[in-house]
Hints:
There is one protein chain. The chain is mainly α. The chain has one domain (about 5-119). It contains 4 helices and no strands. It has helices spanning about 5-30, 40-45, 50-100, 110-119. The longest helix is centred in the middle third of the chain and has 49 residues, at about 50-100. The radius of gyration is 25 Å and the shape is elongated. The two termini are about 30 Å apart.
Amino acid sequence: MFSLESFEEHIQALMEAVVEAAVVELRRLLLTECWRSGVSVQERSAAGEGGGEDREDRQQAVVHLTDQFISLMKVCTKDVLEKTTTMVKMSMCETRLELSTSPEDGINPEDRKKSAARK
């Protein structure tokens, strides 16, 4: 049987997995610095370039950017969950309305849908 709470939990888990994958990819991109100079932090370290402080500054910048991204994604995830839940609730109400409408009341279910869509 369908449970709205179970559906919300599944959507939440899915969104968290998407955010986690996006954060991992963002960190990878920032750490390799392919977007910046074409030379990664790892390559510079192997070549002996860049002091310890420079590397720490970069890592702190990556952590800061990643934290900002995580905060943004949490807000977006919450918004997606709320909108998805609202859409499911509306769909469930429309289905119940259609099931409760009998042909004897003289209202065509298609006309009822069009009327509901206009509101």
